[in-house]
């Protein structure tokens, strides 16, 4: 096993463990500079190191510390153990016996209901109701800018054809995304990056990971992300045979559409009552989530695959007609 020196140095800088205390290291796929570290005394740690061009881990650690200190929000965020003296790494408690959500089978009604309930407790924290230092307003959709949705025609030519395909398919949604961004208000404390791989679960309890994008924002974005993520996971259960159509793929779905609908409704039931207008906005924000994922897939592809095409199609449907789509899904 090779343990990189920067990780050991960061861990030593927290005072939690010396290099000789480390027995195992597992770098987490899909999480840059994040590692699970096993110690000789049996403890499991989650270490997150700073990345160039990304928010400092000290800022995220401060948000997590504040969330865990607030009444009603304890245990929504991971347990922060220490930040190294250089501010380059934060160490959290590891969740060795908790379930990591990796796909559709892991996001059952108990889990999505618990995520919805956790978000309701988080969103109950409003600006001015609690003295929270270090928490700032977020940009629309949890981003500081809308750079992913504001590509000029000249810049678009430099993108892979997969991205351009998504962009063309979503042409009717561009003004809608702009309108959603314009109505964004920092009205509640939000996580900003709700998706299955940012959650660990133990029965009906959940902890949300990765608080880089947390701040004051629109709570409907968190809900829309949760719904959009469920739709995306469900899409990956479909058998997208070559030459098939949306109707044929749905008719032969291993997981019926009704099951997707029941998961979405379990999530919203855990959250609590929503007005009809809010349900339409949740559907629209789910469309933004799916559009982001389709564009990200397009950045890595010269030709969009079937899941990417379907993701872009559903993103456009949710954004262009959320009031009709919401009753079907929510």
Automatic annotation (TrEMBL):
Domain Aminoglycoside phosphotransferase: 39-228
GO molecular function: transferase activity
Superkingdom in the source lineage: Bacteria
Keyword Transferase: yes
Transmembrane segments: none
InterPro entries documented for this protein: AGP_Transferase (IPR051678), Aminoglycoside_PTrfase (IPR002575), Kinase-like_dom_sf (IPR011009)
Name of one Pfam family that matches: APH
Keywords: Transferase
Gene3D superfamilies: 3.90.1200.10
PANTHER family registered for this protein in UniProt: AMINOGLYCOSIDE PHOSPHOTRANSFERASE DOMAIN-CONTAINING PROTEIN-RELATED, AMINOGLYCOSIDE PHOSPHOTRANSFERASE-RELATED-RELATED
Designated name of the protein: Phosphotransferase enzyme family protein
Species name: Jiangella alba
């Amino acid at each position: 096993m090779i343990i990189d020196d920067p990780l050991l140095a960061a861990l030593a800088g927290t005072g939690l463990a010396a290099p000789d205390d480390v027995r195992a290291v597992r770098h987490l796929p899909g999480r840059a500079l994040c590692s699970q570290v096993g110690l000789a005394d049996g403890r499991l740690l989650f270490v997150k190191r700073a990345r160039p061009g990304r928010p400092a881990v000290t800022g995220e650690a401060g948000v997590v510390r504040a969330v865990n200190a607030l009444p009603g929000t304890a245990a929504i965020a991971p347990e922060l153990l220490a930040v190294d003296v250089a501010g380059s790494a934060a160490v959290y408690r590891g969740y060795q016996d908790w379930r990591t959500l990796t796909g559709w089978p892991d996001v059952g009604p108990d889990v999505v209901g618990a995520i919805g309930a956790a978000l309701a407790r988080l969103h109950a924290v409003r600006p001015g109701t609690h003295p929270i230092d270090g928490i700032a307003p977020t940009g629309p959709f949890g981003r500081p800018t809308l750079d992913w949705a504001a590509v000029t025609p000249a810049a678009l030519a430099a993108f892979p054809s997969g991205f351009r395909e998504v962009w063309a398919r979503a042409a009717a949604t561009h003004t809608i995304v702009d309108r959603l961004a314009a109505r964004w208000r920092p009205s509640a404390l939000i996580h900003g990056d709700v998706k299955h791989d940012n959650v660990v679960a133990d029965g009906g309890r959940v902890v949300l990971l990765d608080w880089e994008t947390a701040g004051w924002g629109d709570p409907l974005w968190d809900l829309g992300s949760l719904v959009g993520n469920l739709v995306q996971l469900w899409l990956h259960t479909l058998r997208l045979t070559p030459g098939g159509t949306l109707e044929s793929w749905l008719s032969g779905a291993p997981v019926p559409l009704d099951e997707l609908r029941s998961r979405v409704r379990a999530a919203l039931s855990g959250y609590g009552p929503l007005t009809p207008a809010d349900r339409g906005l949740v559907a629209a924000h789910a469309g933004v989530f799916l559009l982001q994922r389709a564009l990200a897939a397009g950045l890595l592809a010269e030709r969009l695959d079937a899941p990417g095409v379907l993701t872009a199609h559903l993103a456009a449907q949710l954004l262009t007609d959320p009031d009709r789509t919401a009753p079907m899904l929510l």
